[in-house]
Amino acid sequence: MEFTASQIAGILEGEVEGNPEIAVHKLAKIEEGEKGSLTFLANPKYTPYIYSTEASITIVNKDFVPEQTLSTTLIKVDDAYKSFSKLLEYYNQVKNNKTGIEEPVFMSDSAIHGSDFYMGAFSYLGNDVTIGDNVKIYPNVYVGDNVIIGNDVVVFAGAKIYSESVIGNGCVIHSGAIIGADGFGFTPNSNGEYTKVPQTGNVILEDHVDVGAGTTIDRATLGSTILRRGVKLDNQIQIAHNVEIGEHTAIAAQTGIAGSTKIGRHCMIGGQVGIVGHITIGDRVKIQAQSGIGRNVKDDEVLQGSPALNYGDYNKSYVHFKNLPKLVNRVEEIEKQSKREQKAT
To answer: Which of 113, 174, 208, 241 is catalytic?
Structure first.
């Protein structure tokens, strides 16, 4: 795909300084720009590169005034970083705007879909599946019976959506994600073996939820596992049965959340965090990476460590921990001195 400077300026509501007809077909860092590429300058420390870049077009802030001759065409905007992000989003929309049904696929006669639908090869739609408008299902995707998918949803290659799941509008599910696998429900019997507890619930993703690659969200034992509007999940996360995650909470990779835990709104959870089951975490909580959460957490707490402590207390304690060898040496020296004094008396 090629875009001219004038077309890009139109999308960004910017002003062209240079050749409005020059075209680009790829994106690049400003220090690696070459002919036919588009880049941007937002951080002042990268300003020297604008005089040497070979990028055909550079997006800059309106207040940028060059001090040397430029070979790149400028597009001046209010905020170069935001404008470049907007352009990336537009580019992705154009690139991923596939429609039609490839072959071979399996689609149940009872499955229905809306307009501008795309279904990649070797994908499967089960009985009574309902899919909205502008949904893109990439190759090798499995969608089980009675699944409901809203509008403007993207399901990337190899994702699996088990039966009864509900996917809201504007959701993105990345490759290898599994929505609706059985919760880890087993009960020991008199023989010391485990009996399976049927998992009869489902998973609900509200609008604008992103699910990273390789992430698993288990169906509820009864009721629903629920991710509220705007939740963002990184790759390789485990969400257990009957968990509920509040609006606009973001969780980094390799975090595990055990069953029936409730997490509030606008929380930020770092990578490799472990959270036990059947607890409640409040709103706007921040949990540092590799922390272990084994208790209820109040609104606005910031935690670190395993088991997790208040973030400030953790840092104070860590200072002492780092100095522990010195403290041990001091105690030993005091004990030796004490013994010498006792012998002397």
So the answer is: 241
Neighbours of 269 (CB within 10 A): 26
Cα distances (Å, whole numbers) of residue 138 to 108, 232, 241: 17, 21, 27
What residue segments make up the domains of the chain, in order of their start?
Answer: 3-95, 100-313, 319-344
The answer to whether 208 is a known catalytic residue is no
Tens of pLDDT, residue by residue, the chain (345 residues): 789 999 999 999 999 999 999 999 999 999 999 999 999 999 999 999 999 999 999 999 999 999 999 999 999 999 999 999 998 888 887 777 889 999 999 999 999 999 999 999 999 999 999 999 999 999 999 999 999 999 999 999 999 999 999 999 999 999 999 999 999 999 998 888 999 999 999 999 999 999 999 999 999 999 999 999 999 999 999 999 999 999 999 999 999 999 999 999 999 999 999 999 999 999 999 999 999 999 999 999 999 987 776 878 877 877 777 788 888 888 888 888 888 888 877
Going by C-alpha positions, the residue among 257, 158, 154, 133 that lies closest to residue 210 is 154
| C-alpha torsion angle, residues 263, 264, 266, 267 (rounded to 10) | -40
Give the Cα separation of 226 and 310 in Å (integer).
28
Q: What tokens appear for 317 in the block?
A: 């304690």
- The CATH superfamily label for domain 3-95 reads MurE/MurF, N-terminal domain (3.40.1390.10)
3-95 and 100-313: same fold?
Answer: no
Question: Which fold does the domain 100-313 belong to in CATH?
Answer: UDP N-Acetylglucosamine Acyltransferase; domain 1 (2.160.10)
Say if residues 77 and 41 touch (Cβ distance below 8 Å).
no
Q: What is the pTM of this model?
A: 0.81
SS3 326: helix
Identify the sign of the CA torsion 78, 79, 80, 83: negative
